[in-house]
Amino acid sequence: MAEDDSVAPMEITWKHPVFAFFKDIRLVFKMDSLGKEILTIAVPAAMAFAADPVASLIDTAFIGHIGAVEIATVGVSIAIFNQVSKVSHLLVLQLHLSLRKKL
Predict the structure, then answer these.
(1) Domain assignments of the chain as residue spans, ordered by start
(2) Distance (Å, rounded) from C-alpha 58 to C-alpha 31?
(3) pTM recorded for the entire structure
(4) What pLDDT digit, counting tens, does each position of 26-42 carry?
(5) What would the DSSP string read from start to end of 54-79?
(6) Do residues 20 and 14 make contact, with C-beta atoms less than 8 angstroms apart?
């Protein structure tokens, strides 16, 4: 360990090139109070973003048993719903940031 108590990077040989991005991940994500606070916000947000495609997939699977016309209408409605939800999320985020700036 170094004299200034900094954490030395690990010397690991990675077999897959994708792991080069995660080489020093423990230096980036520290579990101090700020890291825990970020996780309490990020994990539910990531689960909410993952829930939309899963719900759409389940809808498609159930409606797919009925017929071809019905599955086509579900595809169109899912596309419209995804666009509307993205626009509304953007508007809510902008509103939240503008209110936060005034406080």
Answers:
(1) 30-102
(2) 36
(3) 0.49
(4) 666 677 888 788 888 88
(5) HHHHHHHHHHTTT-HHHHHHHHHHHH
(6) yes
